[in-house]
Design goal:
The protein has helices at about 50-55, 90-100, 170-180, and strands at about 5-10, 10, 25-30, 40-45, 60, 65-75, 80-85, 105-120, 125-140, 150. It is mainly beta and about 190 residues long.
Length: about 190
């Protein structure tokens, strides 16, 4: 079996200082449950990643190629597979963080090997168990509901020179996520939201 990929949009927010001391973090839904089939005709059922994420952390990549950070948290929620990743201050990591902060990168994608699945009556492949290897920040997702929900910086310092300062209200963020069919996602007010 070969490695397959799934992509979904994401959001970026501010957080506690990351272990790599940049304080940069990206969080979001790397995969969602059920819903309409993605661009590859797949849907994922809850529990599909449970065994895999219990075994080891995922890698965090840019566009499925270059490592840009490490996993801080990953868990299955009612909406899907939620994760938080620190972003390392490398050339590619910095570029990915700034693109996510500006809303250019707004999706996540997963690299996985399907282990168990069934084909639904409508022809969709229902992924029941997958070996998850990596999560990537991407520009074009297969699953339009896999969204970055937050891009964070540890300190609420003013923007760096030449860095755009975007401050979206809680309501605008809620509406954006609702457009992607994501409701009841907790959006913290104490974070420095971009």
């Amino acid at each position: 079996m070969s490695l397959e990929y799934k992509s979904i949009p994401f959001a970026v927010k501010a957080a506690e200082r990351a272990a790599d001391d940049t304080g940069w973090e990206i969080a979001g839904l790397a995969s969602t449950w059920w819903g309409e089939p993605d661009a590859y005709g797949d849907v994922v059922q809850p529990g599909a990643f449970a065994a895999s994420i219990a075994e080891r952390p995922t890698k965090f990549l840019y566009e499925h190629h270059t490592p840009i950070g490490k996993q801080l948290e990953i868990r299955e929620t009612d909406e899907g597979l939620y994760g938080r990743w620190s972003v390392v201050d490398t050339t590619v990591g910095t570029d990915a963080y700034k693109l996510a902060k500006a809303g250019v990168l707004d999706s996540l994608s997963i690299g996985y090997i399907p282990l168990e699945w069934e084909i639904r009556g409508d022809g969709a492949r229902v992924l029941q168990k997958c070996e998850l290897y990596e999560v990537s920040a991407v520009a074009i997702p297969a699953n339009t509901n896999a969204v970055i929900t937050a891009v964070k910086r540890a300190s609420p310092e003013p923007s760096e020179p030449g860095e755009p300062h975007l401050n979206l209200s809680r309501e605008l963020r809620r509406r954006r996520l609702a457009r992607h069919g994501i409701a009841n996602l907790s959006i913290t007010s104490d974070a420095h939201h971009i």
